[in-house]
Amino acid sequence: MADTFDPTKPPRQEQIQQNGEIGVPLSLSLSDHSDPPKTSWSAFINSRLNATPPRSRQASPAHSPRLGPSRFSIADRSSDSHHESFRDRKMQKRAKRKKLGKMSHGKRRIKGFLTLICLLALFLFVNWIMLLRLQEHGIVHHKSRSSINNSPVSARKGLRKIGKGKATQKGNYGRMLALAAHALAEGQNKAEPKDLWKEPFILASSWKPCADQRNWEPNEGKNGYILVTANGGMNQQRVAVCNAVVLARLLNSTLVVPKFLYSSVWKDVSQFSDIYEEEHFINYLSPDIRIVKELPKELRSLNLEAIGSVVTDEDIRKEAKPSFYLKNILPIILKNGVVHLLGFGNRLAFDPIPFQLQRLRCRCNFHALQFVPKIQQIGALLLQRLRQHEGHPGGPLDQYLVGSYAQEFRKQNQTRPKKASRYLALHLRFEIDMVAHSLCEFGGGDEERRELEAYREIHFPALTLLKKTTKLPSPQELRSEGLCPLTPEEAVLMLAALGFNRKTHIFVAGSQIYGGRSRLVALTSLYPKLVTKENLLSSSELEPFMNFSSQLAALDFIGCTAADAFAMTDSGSQLSSLVSGFRVYYGGGNMPTIRPNKRRLASIFMKNSTIEWRVFEQRVRKAIRQTKHVRTRPKARSVYRYPRCKECMCRTE
Question: Which of 50, 165, 323, 514 is an S-S bond match for 432, by CB 3.0 to 4.6 Å?
Fold first, then answer.
């Protein structure tokens, strides 16, 4: 039965809905503003901006609860029409003002939310800019080792903004150094990659030294005398001596103990007997060639230049073949009884060379040239301190490098506490002569260019002339081709990417760095346990070697050769080549060498402003891993650097 209208009863909820009211209880006033549902900032703002304000129940008198049907409405409708009209207008104005007030209030809330969001966005943007600038311009702050804390907090505090003046960080690696510092701080307690301190043992250990084996009769040296004056530093001179020994056997001549040419670069007056044991050299090679300390009296008075017996390095092409000497040098010796090879360096080819002559070359380098006792003694002391007083087992390599002093210090150390002895040796070939000769640029701007050009004019005049007469590759082209030595900043980034942690003990050879101590800031800050021979040896212990760069280089040679791992920054360096060769020859497959592919690294470093640290790590490790393969000597390459060949070493399998 249909419901009938009863004016004496209040309207039911369903009737209110049919008359246009929203379906909510009357007890809930539309003026109540409950909190918006929890949602995202953007969704909430959009809903506030797009939503239509709710229609007020008082906006229309016909739908007002006060003016709805009641028991008085029908009887009084005609008589009260005038008052109802007045009341309606008054209620409409009041509703309009309330509606406008609500809209204004809603707009103010929306405006407040937008302002808050804008301020928050601005704050985040400013913080991002500041962090970006810090990463781009921050460098690792230099502190003394005594004040360095190895904690991650200490590493983070090591970042500082580049200063001005001489202390300015050269190069463009501020961002990468900051990333490296962070990575080292975060991972200092992590295990290092397993291959950092190892070689591919099975392959590497299958090669054994055998250059000491002989299979010929002694050479009597009947065809006159060979004088050799070798140029360069200690390592270039060493190569020249070995080549001279081979030449004496080739020409059946007597070798006079070689002399060393004074260099305006090295400024060292040291001669053969100041560095190497002369008697051991003569006696060890006596089954191979005849060696004397000086010319016979009748030949000393000759004017060798006047009789045409002086041959300079300009007269002999680089890596000349044996046939050249048989054709051009032997006739001079037979005619005058003597020849003087002045500036003799890498003037003998590595191939083709007869088997026994090549073996003699190895025998001279790896066996005949031993350091004098004063170098051996301080060298043994250097190793003792590098190894933290541990009774190191030593072996053939220690015996070769420091002789009987290895046994002496081992006995002294037996009563001392054992400590970790593992250390990495790093040869920074970044002296001014190398930097100037490379024709590269290293971030020092116009001041650096003027300084290096002035140095070249004095020490490398031929190179200066070549620059003026020939179009040479630009510094950028040289770097992209891997022809520039690694800077200290690039070296430390390489070590960090490989996984060496902050606790690594590092011995740095070649500490006369171009740019001075400030150029070592990155190294000493990221690796606080970094030392040089100047740190480990007292002034009184170093005093006998001061002003003798070749003798100091011999100490660096010992420290690098005996290291648990060795890293070079320039594979073309003679010291790095000789050291890596000795580590192969005597290492027994336990002495890894890190030899960077500078061309590959250059392409990685060129992306230093954008590359992420994890990607940088992966690419550097891949580039270095590819250089650690165990391989035999490539054709025409140095036997001093690659002794894995049948002339120098023998395979056991």
Answer: 514
